[in-house]
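Lab manual, section 2.4: Encoding a predicted structure.

Procedure: take the sequence of the chain (134 residues), apply the prediction step described in section 2.3, and record the output as C-alpha cells. A sample record is shown.
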Amino acid sequence: MKISYPDHLAGTPDHAEIVFQSVGRTSSAAAPIVLDMAAVRWIAPYGAVTLLLTCRYLTQLTGCPVEIDELRPDVRAYLDRIDLFDVGRAWVRMRQAVDPEFRFGLWPRWISTESVLLLCHVPAPIRLCPRFDA
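Recorded output:
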C-alpha cells in the first residue's frame, strides 16, 4: 500500500497533528506500507520525530517496517545525519539503496554540524524523579 506523505513536517508543530490525524484513520493496511515522500521539501526536528512515530505506528499496525520512497537527497542526508534510520531501524527503511559515499555527503559529521540534534533510543522506563512516581 502506497501512501502519499504530505509536506507538513517543516511548518509549525500544529502540522504534526494533521499527519497524526490522517495516519490515525488508517485502521487496517496491507503490508508493507510505502510512504511516498515526493511532496516533502524539508523536515524540521519535530517533523523527524513525527515521521518516526508515524512509522512506528504503521509498523505496529501491519507487522512490517515502513518503506520510504521518493525522498529528496537533501532531506535524506538530514535524516541520515540525525540517525533516524539507525534509531528507527525496526520501523523504517529506505526503499531504494543509497550509494555509501552519499551517506554523509551533504550533512557530514563536521564540527559545523555539531549543533544538529541526533535522535536516540531511550529505553523505558526511566525514572528521573523517583519521589514523583505514582
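Check your result against the sample. The CA atoms of residues 7 and 40 lie 4 Å apart.
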